[in-house]
């Protein structure tokens, strides 16, 4: 089945089983490798992307539901000022070690700051509660959210 | 290979459901996991899939009139469309607090952005987190088919774990929550961690206290039986009581004993029957003590 949608603001069309996950479509059909597969069942957040501006797990959403919608992945986000703001904040806070959770973390932090430019600690922790990191611990990632909020003053 | 169909309107969806067997697919956060084969492979569904996430008419939360009370005053009810996500419920100011709290405790934000409450209901898991709150609120469900519409009490709709009254040609289209005045709310979910944890047990409570007396007090327990445990008979013990009585040790023990007789949890991979019973009753004590201070 032909399915058309916007990926990082560009119209794309894929020939795929509509029940195939968006994650599989991104990585295998479209060679967009930033979005990672962790648990494959919506528990780890490594595959977090934005669908119509909202954070979703790409592993649990079939591509058939993306028809006509807007997908944003790290490949697109890193080309934006806001995306870079989050990425640089993660680097500054040393919130990256192995990096596997990082694409999902960037998307989750971006979704948070878009909705709430000045989040408190609890709001930050809630926003990344579906994104597991087994290396750095969450302290530095929470710091990154605060840095991105400060540095991006006026941006968010 | 099964077919997938994504209608824009409810009529189109119901027409499709009228013939053959289908799997209704909204957020799909349970379905994708239930039907997964192995990493990297497309989930395997055994029936044609009807995606209902594109039906805009089901994505609203509205207020409607809902008959009249004994004084002839018009009552209202909240109508939640089947396409409304848990995130929307969590954030919506008109949704009763106990339901907002229970929606907010489910999984994590990315999942709540897709998962719907209608899905949580139709899945009919004993551990479904929105069910205790919905039982307390006397929620009803609207079931539509090409033949017509019927409305059921949620308590009657859910039969057993994974089993509901939904017929093959029907779709749950709306959830109706009658207007009710419950300023005091209790909700506690016990899980292994704060986010992304399935429920070991949960306790929900609602109460209305006027001039130091309980007008209405409701209690429900989740994940401690095949379906939600709520007893109107035991709740009637509270009607009209002065709140101070809820701190009387003899009264507390009586209530705990009575509820202990209707809670029959099981051992499973998430918890044990003993723990579930004990923790449920401990949370009931906490709810009573919280109420006694009102």
Structure, described:
The complex is a heterodimer of chains A (156) and B (294). Chain A is an alpha+beta fold and 156 residues long. Chain A folds into two domains: 2-76, Beta-grasp domain (Ubiquitin-like (UB roll), Roll); 80-151, DNA polymerase, domain 1 (Orthogonal Bundle). Chain A is built from six helices and five strands; from the N terminus they run E-E-H-E-E-E-H-H-H-H-H. A five-stranded mixed beta sheet of chain A has the order 2-1-5-3-4, sandwiched between helices. In chain A, a hairpin with a 2-residue loop joins strand 1 (2-7) and strand 2. In chain A, helix 3 packs across helix 4 and helix 3 (81-92) crosses helix 6. Chain A starts with a strand and ends in a 5-residue tail after the last helix. The model of chain A has no long low-confidence stretch (mean pLDDT 97). By secondary structure, chain B is an alpha+beta fold. Helix content of chain B is 29%, strand content 27%. Chain B has eleven helices and 13 strands. Chain B is globular. The N and C termini of chain B lie far apart (59 Å). Classes of the chains: A alpha+beta (156), B alpha+beta (294). Chains A and B meet through strand 4 of A and helix 5 of B.
Shape of chain B: globular
| Mean pLDDT, all residues of chain B | 96
Q: By helix and strand content of chain A, what is the structural category?
A: alpha+beta
Any idea what the shape of chain A is? Answer: globular
Per DSSP, the total helix count of chain B is 11
CATH class of the largest domain in chain B: Alpha Beta
- As residue ranges, the low-confidence spans of chain A are none
| Largest sheet, strands/sense/barrel of chain A | 5 strands, mixed
Strand order in space, largest sheet of chain A: 2-1-5-3-4
Task: Please give the order of strands in the largest beta sheet of chain B.
Answer: 4-5-10-6-7
Tell me the CATH superfamily of the largest domain in chain A: Beta-grasp domain
- Percent range of helical residues of chain A: 25-40%
Strand-pairing-aware structural class of chain B: alpha+beta
Largest interface: A-B, 34 and 30 residues
């Amino acid at each position: 089945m032909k399915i058309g949608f916007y990926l990082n603001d560009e119209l794309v069309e894929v020939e795929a089983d509509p029940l195939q996950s968006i994650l599989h479509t991104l990585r295998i059909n479209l060679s967009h490798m930033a979005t990672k597969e962790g648990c494959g069942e919506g528990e780890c957040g490594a595959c977090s992307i934005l669908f119509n501006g909202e954070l979703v797990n790409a592993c649990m959403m079939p591509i058939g539901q993306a028809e006509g919608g807007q997908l944003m992945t790290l490949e697109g986000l890193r080309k934006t000022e806001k995306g870079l703001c989050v990425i640089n904040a993660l680097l500054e806070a040393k919130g990256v070690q192995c990096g596997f959770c990082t694409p999902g973390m960037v998307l989750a932090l971006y979704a948070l700051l878009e909705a709430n430019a000045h989040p408190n600690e609890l709001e930050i922790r809630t926003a990344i509660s579906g994104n597991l990191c087994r290396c750095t611990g969450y302290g530095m990632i929470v710091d990154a959210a605060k840095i991105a909020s400060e540095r991006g003053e006026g941006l968010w | 290979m099964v077919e997938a169909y994504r209608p824009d309107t409810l009529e189109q969806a119901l027409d499709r459901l009228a013939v053959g067997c289908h799997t209704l697919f909204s957020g799909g956060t349970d379905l994708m996991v239930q039907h997964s084969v192995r990493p990297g492979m497309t989930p395997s569904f055994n029936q044609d899939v009807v995606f209902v996430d594109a039906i805009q008419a089901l994505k609203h939360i509205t207020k409607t009139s809902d008959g009249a009370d004994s004084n002839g005053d018009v009552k209202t009810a909240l109508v939640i469309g089947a396409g409304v996500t848990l995130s929307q419920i969590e954030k919506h100011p008109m949704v009763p607090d106990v339901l907002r709290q229970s929606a907010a405790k489910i999984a994590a934000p990315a999942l709540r952005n897709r998962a719907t409450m209608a899905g949580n209901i139709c899945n009919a898991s004993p551990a479904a987190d929105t069910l205790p709150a919905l039982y307390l609120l006397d929620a009803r469900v609207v079931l539509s088919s090409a033949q017509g519409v019927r409305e059921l009490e949620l308590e009657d709709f859910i039969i057993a774990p994974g089993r509901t009254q939904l017929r093959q040609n029907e779709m749950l289209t709306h959830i109706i929550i009658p207007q009710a005045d419950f300023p005091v709310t209790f909700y506690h979910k016990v899980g292994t961690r704060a986010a992304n944890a399935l429920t070991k047990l949960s306790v929900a409570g609602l109460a209305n206290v006027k001039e130091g007396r309980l007008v209405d007090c409701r209690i429900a327990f989740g994940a401690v039986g095949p379906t939600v445990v709520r007893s109107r008979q035991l709740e009637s013990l509270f009607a009209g009581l002065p709140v101070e009585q809820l701190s009387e040790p003899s009264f507390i023990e009586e209530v705990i004993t009575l509820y202990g007789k209707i809670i029959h949890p099981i051992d499973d991979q998430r918890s044990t029957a003993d723990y579930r019973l004990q923790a449920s009753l401990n949370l009931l004590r906490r709810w009573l003590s919280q109420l006694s201070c009102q």
